[in-house]
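Hi everyone, sorry if this is the wrong subforum. Our group has a chain we'd like a structural model of before ordering constructs, and none of us has done structure prediction before. Sequence below.
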Amino acid sequence: MYKVYIECECEGKKRGTEVPTQYRVRKDQVSWIEPKRTLDDWLLKDPTAPVVMKDIHNLYLSAKKKRDGGLPPIQALFANLQKSDRLLYDHSTDKFNQLWNLLFFDITSLTFLQQFPSTIVLDSTYKTNRHNLYLLDIVGVTATNSSFVIGQAFLSAESTEDYTWVLEWVREYYISLRYPAALPSSV
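Answer:
Right subforum, don't worry. Here is the predicted structure as tokens:
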């Protein structure tokens, strides 16, 4: 286990205190624990610790950079999609070769889809992420009216062409299955 020490210059003297290790920060990131909660937990253990929120954010950024291999977020995403044997994905680019749409499916969800192919539902959110992309959820319904996520797509625009691109991918997958009885959509 590594110890990281922070010098507190605000009191005019050095004081070393153990801060959360990179392992702990990576574990918190994977668990979707917010940096504020990591700081609160640490300060509960040592209220006199000379650490501020910026220190915790720096540890989170360092762990994220290490996790992504120093790649920008989009490149890290594609690297992870290519390495994954659990995900199928496709993407389209615009005339400047910039990412336009991204579609991904979990293999487990596609197995459920093979068992329950009769109904799929499309639902789109409207630019609620930091990149202002539409998130299209593709959801299946089981015989007991339980739902499961089949796949998701980030779309740059809410156009007929973009929805057609997603539905063409789903249709290609359905070649080996029978078609759904209904394709309702909220769009």
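For your construct planning: Residues 1-17 have pLDDT under 50 and may be disordered. DSSP finds six helices and five strands in the chain.
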